[in-house]
Amino acid sequence: MEEDFYPEEQAPAKSIKGYKIVIIILAIILGALSFQYFRQVRDLKQEFAIERDTLTNRLTNMIANYDSLRVENDTINANLAVARYQADSLLESLQKERAWSRRKIREYEKKMGLMRTVMEGYIHQIDSLNQLNTKLIGENRTYRLREASLRKRADLAEEQAAELNTKIRKGSVIRARDIRLVALNINDKEVTRASRAAGLRVDCVLAANELGTPGQRTIYARITGPDGYVLANSSGAVFDFEGEKLSYSASREVDYQLKDLNVSIYYGGSGISGGKYNVQIYMDGYMIGSNEILLR
Prior knowledge:
Layout: H1 2-68, H2 74-96, H3 102-171, E1 176-184, E2 199-206, E3 215-224, E4 238-241, E5 244-247, E6 250-256, E7 261-268, E8 275-283, E9 286-295
Antiparallel strand pairs: 1-2, 2-7, 3-6, 3-8, 4-5, 8-9
Helix pairs in contact: 1-2, 1-3, 2-3
């Protein structure tokens, strides 16, 4: 009877041993798969970390580029501020992200690509404005140089005109020549001795001058005696000369017609004595002639 049951006892033992082998093999396979899985997960996390750092650096550089963009245009500056805020928000979201995946990375890359395109558009606008400003600055500089040149030429022309006007004005002054001082007696006759004189006569010639203005003139004679005092007219009248009031000895109205005109001006008064006299002739606000004359 024992011999009949022995084969039946051996069969379960063999089955159990076979199961153990299978279980061991499965455990080994499972361990290998688990190891491979965890290694892949670890590698994927490292890869995602690298991608995250790369995205962070790119986004940080983009924000720095936004900060470097400056233009004197309120509209563009306002748009840049909005884009800068969006970049800050994306960076904050990226730094807080925990559920990383390839899909997430592609989403961030897509958003950053759009921001990059927007920034490049602003850069293009700013470059265009800078080029336009450079052109306008160059044109403005050219205009200023041209304006300065024209102003210089105008000033030079004005100086030349003023100089010419001065020359013409000086050239139009009527001069007195051949100035004489003659002693007269009570009958207006010439005498040779000043001690016998009752008056004086100033003779001169108003020289011809085509640049002058014809018409009535008042001519003044200012006679300074040997004592250095001016022989004043009886009324004590004065005339204007270069902002001053000057006394004069005698005056006369003449009609000057741009030709030589002989003029005699009479002084009647006391204080006539022998000595050196100085005679000055004035007309039109100018001293037009003078002479020193000795009366004996």
